[in-house]
Amino acid sequence: MLERSDWYDLARDTNWTPKYVPESELFPEEYAGTRGIPEHIWATYDEPYKVTYREYVGMQREKDSGTYSVKAALERMDLFTSADPGWVATLKEHYGAVSVVEYNAALQNARLLRFGRAGGMRNMATFGMLDEVRHGQIQLYFAHEYVSKDRQFDWAHRSMNTNNWVTLAARRFFDDMMMTRNVIDTSLAMNFSFETGFTNLQFIGLASDATHAGDFKFAKLIQSIQSDEARHAQIGTPTLKILIEQGKKAEAQRMVDISFWRSSRLFAILTGIPMDYYLPLDKREGSFKEFMQEWIITQFARSLEDLGLEKPWYWDIFMRDLDEHHHGQQLGTWSWRPTLWWSPAAGVSPDERDWLEEKYPGWNDTFGKCWDTISENVRAGRFEKTVPGTLPVICNISQNPIVGTPGRTLQDRQLTYNGRKYHFGSEVDQWIFEQDPQRYARHQSLVDRFLSGSIEPANLDGVLAYMGLGVISDGGQDAHDFSWATAKKGEAA
Fold first, then answer.
1. How far is the C-alpha of 219 from the C-alpha of 142, rounded, in Å?
2. Which of 4, 198, 364, 379 has its CA 20 to 30 A from that of 440?
3. If you ran DSSP here, which 8-state letter would residue 249 be given?
4. Interior angle at CA 169, CA 165 and CA 170, nearest 5
5. Where are the beta strands (DSSP E) in 285-437?
6. Are 346 and 477 in contact, with CB atoms under 8 Å apart?
7. CA-based R_g, the chain, Å
């Protein structure tokens, strides 16, 4: 029998010469994004991870078998009842933000499969598409078992069909990076920047946190997904090599710079907040910043260097953000907890504050002072003062509230374009907008919709109903019923 290496390249290369239509119609440039690079150059695309369909099916069968077996074996442990509310918040946030997006990722891979000019890309995308369908199905299935116990888990299936502000931010990101660009650009944005750089952070970090929290079902689930992500994350690297070799380095660098920043803003909320605030203190392996230093600063930066790319031009701003941004988003999301589909943990008991000060020196003098005021209001029973009385200013790129370090870096950058004023949380967000204003100009944030009269009645109840709160489930409350505000050192929240 022939070795796989003897026949693999021939078997996966399904290129042919069309007779009935010109290649320009078969692979329209707006979808294929070849930038004029000829087909014989794309034929040199050499995917680093080679697998046959038979091997793929066998591996996936083993993963599914192991994951479902662990789920069945631990069914009677009733983790939901015994788990810390902070961990439950992590599960709800993850399932609601990720599960259905996996199906969209399957569509992205399907476009690579159809319009990719390289046989190797199409082969990888075929398996990637099947991966993402499995990821959507298995995460919805695992979340569904909790719906009868807590309706907030129903957001796993329904969040992406709502106008919740967190959903709007996530959907806008994925529409931009995954659904509306040609296959070359989306392979750089999603497969290289997002998956190589950040999904490892989410899935490896979250799997580690789940193990420490005793949620072995979720840990096994996430591990089975992460190994797939690691495989099809590699679709982007050969694409980058070809672009650079063909003199398209500047275009490649620009796409990486845009997608890297946009991904970092998303993961600050999706990963940063749970790691540093939701996970019980005695279960934490490291801080969000430490995970970022390992997976992004060390490994991703090395990938850029190996390919001959530069670090993004805003690297110093990004590094500063590691100490600031997700802390500001935690203050915002916790304060606006009635607008969330999960009940967020404050994560600021005395012991937790000591940990935050150790990991982020200076935290007590900045963000800690805001929490001092909140804690005083809680202890005095002034709970209404722990919820903002005004609408936040939303960044027109990230669609998240504009935040910063209190008294230091908070700045609402403004730009008027075609008579409309836009707001940006950083100069990088503004730079991204200026690269392609038409792409972003028409989108309306939740606040834009409220001010334009699209939400009725124009009051808090109307806004909550518009976002699905009180419809799918109630909104969030403090995960620990404010026990952290009166806890003493040595006492858990």
1. 12
2. 198
3. H
4. 115
5. 413-417, 420-424
6. no
7. 23
Is 33 within 8 Å of 185 (Cβ atoms)?
yes
Predicted TM-score of the model (pTM): 0.93
Q: Are 123 and 49 in contact (CB under 8 A)?
A: no
Q: Is the dihedral of CA 481, 461, 474, 328 positive or negative?
A: negative
Residues present in the chain in total: 493
β-strand partners of 413: 424
- Nearest 5°: CA angle at 192, between 143 and 261? 85
Rounded to whole angstroms, how far apart are CA atoms 97 and 157? 10
138-144 LR contacts (CB < 8 Å, sep 24+) = 138/64, 138/67, 138/221, 138/224, 138/225, 139/95, 139/98, 139/99, 139/102, 139/221, 139/225, 140/95, 140/99, 140/100, 142/71, 142/95, 142/217, 142/218, 142/221, 143/91, 143/95, 143/99
pLDDT tens, residue order, the chain (493 aa): 778 888 887 777 777 888 999 989 999 999 999 999 998 999 999 988 888 888 999 999 999 998 888 888 777 667 778 889 999 999 999 999 999 999 999 999 999 999 999 988 999 999 999 999 999 999 999 999 899 999 999 999 999 999 999 999 999 999 999 999 999 999 999 999 998 878 777 777 788 888 888 888 888 888 888 888 878 788 999 999 999 999 999 999 999 999 999 999 999 999 999 999 999 999 998 899 998 888 788 888 888 999 999 999 999 999 999 999 999 999 999 999 999 999 999 999 999 999 999 999 999 999 999 999 999 999 999 999 999 888 889 999 999 999 988 777 778 999 999 999 999 999 999 999 999 999 999 999 999 999 999 998 988 889 999 999 999 999 999 999 999 999 988 776 6
Tokens of residue 135, six digits: 């990821």
Q: Which amino acid belongs to residue 4?
A: R
| Residue among 278, 242, 350 at smallest CA distance from 89 | 278
- Angle among Cα 473, 468, 386 to the nearest 5 degrees reads 75
Q: Which tokens belong to 381? A: 């029973």
Q: In the chain, how long is the greatest CA-to-CA distance? A: 79
Residues with Cβ within 8 Å of 54's Cβ and at least 6 positions away in sequence, in order, are none
Cα 414 to Cα 17: distance, rounded to the nearest angstrom: 51
Distance CA 490, CA 493 (A): 10
